[in-house]
Design a protein that fits this description.
By secondary structure, this protein is of the alpha/beta class. The protein has a single domain, classed as Rhodanese-like domain (Oxidized Rhodanese, domain 1, 3-Layer(aba) Sandwich), CATH 3.40.250. The chain is built from 5 helices and 5 strands; from the N terminus they run βαβαβαβαβα. Strand 4, helix 4 and strand 5 form a beta-alpha-beta unit. The longest helix has 13 residues. The protein is globular and about 35 Å long.
C-alpha cells in the first residue's frame, strides 16, 4: 500500500510513531537520505521479525518501485497490518518537501 508524500510529511510533523526503513543500497544512502533506519532490500526479509508490530512500517527507496514490490511481498508472506511504501520514494519527497536534497544518481 502506498503512503502519500503529504500523509508522510503530516505524520512527521505530528510526531506520529512509525518506523521509516530505507531499503536502498549504501551508495544511494550516501548521496541523500530522509532519516530512518537503513536496511538494504536484500536484508529486510531476514530482519522482518525484529520489526515492531504495533506501529506502521514505512519502506522507501529512490523512486518507490522497489519498496512497493517489497511491501506487496511482505503483505503476502507476513500477517502485518501496517505496511506502507512511500509514494515516489526519496526523490519525490525531495522534490516536494526538501529541495536541498539532491537525490538523483
Amino acid at each position: 500500500m502506498f503512503l502519500s508524500l503529504e500523509t508522510f510529511n503530516q505524520w512527521k510533523l505530528e510526531g506520529k510513531d512509525f518506523m521509516l526503513i530505507d531499503v536502498r543500497e549504501d551508495y544511494e544512502v550516501a548521496l541523500c537520505h530522509i532519516g530512518g533506519t537503513h536496511i538494504p532490500l536484500d536484508q529486510v526479509i531476514h530482519n522482518f521479525n525484529s520489526f515492531p508490530e504495533d506501529k506502521p512500517l514505512i519502506f522507501h527507496c529512490n523512486s518507490g518501485k522497489r519498496s512497493d514490490a517489497l511491501v506487496y511481498f511482505l503483505e503476502h508472506k507476513f500477517n502485518h497490518q501496517h505496511l506502507f511504501s512511500l509514494e515516489g520514494g526519496v526523490q519525490a519527497y525531495a522534490e516536494k518537501f526538501d529541495s536541498s536534497l539532491k537525490c538523483t544518481l
